[in-house]
Amino acid sequence: MDAGRWTVFTDGASRGNPGPASIGAVVYDPQRREVHTVSRRIGHATNNEAEYQAAVAGLEAALALGAKAVALRMDSELVVRQLQFRYKVRNPRLQPYFARLLELRRQFADFDVDSLPRAQNKRADQLANLALDTLPE
CA-CA to 64 of 20 to 30 Å: which in 4, 39, 106, 132? Predict the structure, then answer.
C-alpha cells in the first residue's frame, strides 16, 4: 500500500441471485490497520446489486474516516470494469449505484480500483457471509 493510501476491500453476496443478499466491506488505513468493517443484509438483490452496494458502503466509510487517497479492491470484474469505463452500465437497476460510486470517487484526491481473485478478498467475503448466516432479517 502506498503511503497515505487507504485500502477498501468489498464483497456482495446473494443467495439465489436474486435472493437474500448482504454486503461486506473492510477499510484499512495507510498503516494496514483494519479500522472499519461493514457486515449487513440488504434485503432481496442480485449479486451485482450487492457488489455495488458493498463498494458504496466501503467508500462512504473511508470518506467518513478522512481518507483522501483510496484503493478499492473487489472480486467483481463487472463492477471494476464498469468503474474503469471499460464496460457500459446497461442494467438500469445498477445505474444509480454506478452514479453514486462516481460521486464518491470525485471526493477523493486519488482513487483507483482493481479486481483481485476471490482468495485475496477473504475478509470482505467473510463479512458478507456473516450477515447472511447470522444476522436477523
Answer: 132
| DSSP run (H or E) holding 59 | helix 47-64
pLDDT at residue 30 above 90?
Answer: yes
Which pLDDT band holds residue 19 (cuts at 50, 70, 90)? very high
CA distances from 112 to 15, 75, 133 (A): 29, 14, 31
pTM greater than 0.90 (yes/no): yes
Residues 126, 17: Cα–Cα separation, whole Å = 18
pLDDT tens by residue, 52-111: 999 999 999 999 999 999 999 999 999 999 999 999 999 999 999 999 999 999 999 999
Peptide bond into 20 cis (omega under 30): no
The string of DSSP letters for 76-135 reads -HHHHHHHTTSS----TTTHHHHHHHHHHHTTSSEEEEEE--GGG-HHHHHHHHHHHHHS
Asked if 58 contacts 87 with a C-beta cutoff of 8 angstroms, the reply is no
- Domains in the chain (CATH in brackets) are 5-134 (3.30.420.10)
